[in-house]
Amino acid sequence: MEYVSGGELFDYIVKNGKLQEHEARRFFQQIISGVDYCHRHMIVHRDLKPENLLLDHNMHVKIADFGLSNMMLDGEFLRTSCGSPNYAAPEVISGKLYAGPEVDIWSCGVILYALLCGTLPFDDEHVPTLFRKIKTGIFPIPEYLNKQVVNLVCQMLQVDPLKRANIEEIKKHEWFQVDLPSYLFPSNIEQDSNVIDTYAVQEVCDKFGVKDTEVHNALLSEDPHDQLAIAYHLIIDNQRFADEAAKAEINNFFVAGSPPPKL
What we know:
The chain is mainly alpha-helical. The protein has helices at about 10-15, 20-40, 90-95, 100-115, 125-135, 145-155, 165-170, 175, 200-210, 210-220, 225-255; strands at about 45, 55, 60-65, 70. It has 11 helices and 4 strands; from the N terminus they run H-H-E-E-E-E-H-H-H-H-H-H-H-H-H. A hairpin with a 5-residue loop joins strand 2 and strand 3 (about 60-65). It catalyses: L-threonyl-[protein] + ATP = O-phospho-L-threonyl-[protein] + ADP + H(+); L-seryl-[protein] + ATP = O-phospho-L-seryl-[protein] + ADP + H(+).
């Protein structure tokens, strides 16, 4: 288990209050990167909130507490009402069916608001009143927020899940794109499905105590829920993230070390 020394994002917000826009954006970009990673691997968190977002010694966000998470299956919907009330989507507190990603998007919208404002968009000590506020989707918008980020928050806090922004729309939003580190969303490089990474296969074998032929068979089966295949693709993705991060650090090093321009 990884030790994360920076504490909860919640405590950071309590200590610092509303964050500067550039800092809020940096945290939010990392959160969306992590949520996107979960969704691409068919996992919906369902309890995203600052208390479940941890900070490491470099102030990088780590998503934690997957106790209420669930696997997404094609054509199937979820109904369980779970998560923290202040961050729960309208369809969740109403007991309606939901696919999964859209409820995480709502929670991320609440988190973004909290980062920028130091308060919650929907809050009340009386839970029924809180639920009524959430279902209306009406929340105060401070005058100091710029129009771009207000537009993004409003897209994420749409009561109708069909009108709510999805991950791809968030990633393409002009506010989100500012100073976006390339390693958070590595470019999708199409790989030859016939080429199998032997290092990743060996790592799966070591972790699960299986033979390489079993991993090969799992990959050939193309079963999206096979644990060996999932582990293999997670290893490949992690390596891709690490490679992109290393490139970014090297680029930053050369930029920082460049001589100043002549005046």
